[in-house]
Amino acid sequence: MSPVPRRAPRAAIVAGAIVPLLLAARSAAPEPEPPFAAPSCPAPLGRPVALPLRALELAFLGPDRLLALDGAEVALFELGEGGARLLSRASLPGPLEVVRAPGGLLQASERDAAAWAMTSRSPRAVLLAVESGALVEREQAEALPFPGAPRGLRFRAGTNLIEGEVEGLGGGPFLDVTGTGTPLAVSPEGRLLAAGAGGAAARVGPTLAPLWPGLVAASAASPPGHDDALLVLTATGTQPLLSCPAPGPVRAIAARVHGETARLAVAVDDGEGGSSLLMFELVHPQPGAQTPPRP
Amino acid sequence: MRGHRRAGTAGALLAALALAAMARAALGPRYGGDLAVAALSLPAALDPAAPRGSGEALLALLVHERLLRLDTEGEPRAALVRDWFGAAGGREWVLRLEPHARFHDGHPVTAEDARRSLRRFLRSPSPAAARLADTLEGGAAFRARRTEELAGLVASGAEVVLRFLEPVAVPLAPLAAPSAAVLSAGGSGAGPFVPTARVSARRLALTAFGAHVRGRPLLDRVTVVAIPRADELEVELQTRRVSLVVGAGAWGAPASTLLLVFDPSRPPFDDAALRATAADALSRSDLAERVLPGAAPPAGLLPRHLWPPSSAHAEAAHARGAVPATPITLAVSSEVPPLVSQRLIAYLDNLGFRAGAVATTPDRALDAAAHARLLTWSPEVPEPELALRELAALAPDVPGVAAALAAAAREPDVSRRRSYLGEAEKALRASGVLVPLAAVPAAAQARANLHGVTTDRAGRLVLEDAWLSP
């Protein structure tokens, strides 16, 4: 892995279109944690859709646009009643390294119809914009621009571990980092890290998606042989508000909040090297007495 | 999506049913972590060699990489070579190297490295090397050191070319032998872990190799410590000083043969009729299944997944009884559980032998000076013909074996080839030198937080995808 540059990477400059937007969405400290009544598990919206790649990360680019990242490329899908229609694909910068369990990051801006993408197989981050329904490369950088990380984020060579000094979270490594609202991350030990939070942390899997302020969706920290689950947690809580069984290992979650509802896109491994996409709609948990999560 | 829904679990359960075939795991595979392993013995050197014992086999796969491997079905799979193709009617095979393959010392893996390593392999004791040498142009003379010329092995650009005397069956299988691993000019390996420090003869430290051809392994470090007693291995595991022990316990399906090897060069087992009597009686015994977890009756000399089981016993013609109270020494590999060797000694006693057991390390079990040797055996190359050649080397000069194996090597027809191999196996068993006592799993145990450990077709443990859960 190349050393951290002495000056801010080029990414920090070219990311001007996106980072301020992401920063504006952040809050300085974790939201106070009100008690929530445990909601019900949402039903999937339709049947699982086979994706033509192994998703490492997902991100919404609009109400009906979804980006999926695998180790070597980014794909843009149109979401509809019939499932997900592939609109465009873009390759990541090469040469691509061989990584046993690659990791990926997407930082998307709906307003700019663009996203930064990086995986541990590719040596550089890439800024992709959507033009006329197609993904177009706009810029490359040595690190992925990220709010609160002045030098950006990188992958530890040959791994899925994310490194980079993130305000309030330290230098990592992390299994996932999300930058909307309070910075949140997953430690390599499977603990949910929230900027400014101390004490015990919830056990989660390697993928996160921010929901409403103070709430996050995550996969479970189940060991092999146990079912995975889709969790909804408060950023600083130790127990999930909601735990819904997942039909396979959850590898990526994206969430798009609209008022009191949030649309969730969940990619699960299909056991054959690919991914299946499941869509859910989640209702904001209502304040009230907290009840134990579903087993 | 418009509006919101509150739904119960029915939909989620339907989705779960729709995807019921999916694998289950969440937090993993996970990078990082230090794995401590205890093995019965460590090899004196880490040079490529045919591994004897599970500890040597483990290290061979940690440190070294071959041009290709055999998958669980016995088919060749790319390792340091990216792909290969045949030419000249099957007499010539071209192997193209993986462009990004590197050695631990940072040098790229070149065709010249492969050529140099295969020349070393061809002169090694490995029966797989002998088979390759016998079939390559100029290979036999080169192996016998009558010449340094070897027309059948050429390095050209990023390609290695093998030229055979005639088309042969499974021409590339010998390259999957651990002793055919490729070294750099400086002696560095290309396996998933880099040996960093041999703290003592009993302790070896290795770190993850970031440029491994299949990607950096998940573990950061592996430390292997030698614990010469099987019962102490289990204590190491129970006290959590290590997360994996190799040489005790049972791992997976039977992939090895519990083998009794009589020494036909010295009395009393120079008597073929006496061997036949003992072999026939012992092969009908229930020696290991009741005391060895995971063990099964032997399918023959070869593990069941390499060779279909045969109900026929080798003929024990001209059998006769033992001389009463004939004293013999039995060398017992430390990988064989004491209960098994005790039962064998009791059986031998019933047959008229007064056997005294001598413990030996797995790497020396075959060389021990004894009338008989008891060990767990798995082939260096998990391919039936090469495995039988290995066994034939333990029972030399058995009539018909060499001819049957040579015919099998030349035979392209699968059915006729199996027939030749069957003849060789039957002759080897009829010799009474090799007695399969049980089919046994790999000797290993792990703590519950170790995941991703697999075994190859020879039953050797593979740690390159292993990881530790927090």
What secondary-structure arrangement, pairings included, does this model have?
The complex is a heterodimer of chains A (295) and B (470).
Chain A: H1 10-14, H2 19-24, E1 49-51, E2 57-62, E3 65-69, E4 73-80, E5 83-91, E6 104-109, E7 114-119, E8 125-131, E9 134-141, E10 144-146, E11 149-155, E12 162-163, E13 176-178, E14 184-186, E15 192-194, E16 208-210, E17 215-219, E18 229-234, E19 242-245, E20 250-258, E21 261-269, E22 275-283
Antiparallel strand pairs in A: 1-22, 2-3, 3-4, 4-5, 6-7, 7-8, 8-9, 10-11, 11-12, 13-14, 14-15, 16-17, 17-18, 18-19, 20-21, 21-22
Chain B: H1 10-18, E1 34-39, H2 54-63, E2 68-70, E3 76-78, E4 81-87, E5 92-97, H3 111-122, H4 127-135, H5 139-143, E6 153-156, E7 159-163, E8 193-200, E9 203-208, E10 221-226, H6 230-238, E11 244-262, H7 272-283, E12 326-333, H8 338-350, E13 353-360, E14 372-377, H9 384-394, H10 401-410, H11 414-430, E15 434-446, E16 450-451, E17 454-455, E18 461-462, E19 467-468
Parallel strand pairs in B: 1-10, 1-11, 12-13, 12-14
Antiparallel strand pairs in B: 2-3, 4-5, 5-7, 6-7, 8-9, 9-10, 11-14, 11-15, 16-19, 17-18
SS-based class of chain B: alpha+beta
User: Fraction of residues of chain A in helices?
Assistant: under 10%
Quote the beta fraction of chain A: 35-45%
Biggest interface pair, residues each?
A: A-B, 58 and 48 residues
**What average pLDDT do the residues of chain A reach?**
84
Query: Number of DSSP strands of chain B?
Result: 19
Q: Separation of termini of chain A?
A: 42 Å
Please give the share of residues in helix of chain B.
Answer: 10-25%
State the secondary-structure class of chain A: mainly beta
How would you describe what is shown here?
- The complex is a heterodimer of chains A (295) and B (470).
- With 295 residues, chain A is mainly beta.
- Chain A is built from two helices and 22 strands.
- Chain A has helices spanning 10-14, 19-24; strands spanning 49-51, 57-62, 65-69, 73-80, 83-91, 104-109, 114-119, 125-131, 134-141, 144-146, 149-155, 162-163, 176-178, 184-186, 192-194, 208-210, 215-219, 229-234, 242-245, 250-258, 261-269, 275-283.
- Chain A is globular, with a radius of gyration of 18 Å.
- The relative contact order of chain A is 0.19.
- Chain B has helices spanning 10-18, 54-63, 111-122, 127-135, 139-143, 230-238, 272-283, 338-350, 384-394, 401-410, 414-430, and strands spanning 34-39, 68-70, 76-78, 81-87, 92-97, 153-156, 159-163, 193-200, 203-208, 221-226, 244-262, 326-333, 353-360, 372-377, 434-446, 450-451, 454-455, 461-462, 467-468.
- In chain B, the strands form five sheets. In chain B, strands 1, 8, 9, 10, 11, 12, 13, 14 and 15 form a nine-stranded mixed β-sheet that branches. In chain B, strands 4-5-7-6 form a four-stranded antiparallel β-sheet, covered by helices on one side.
- With 470 residues, chain B is α+β, with helices and mostly antiparallel strands.
- At the A-B interface, strand 21 and strand 22 of A face helix 1 of B.
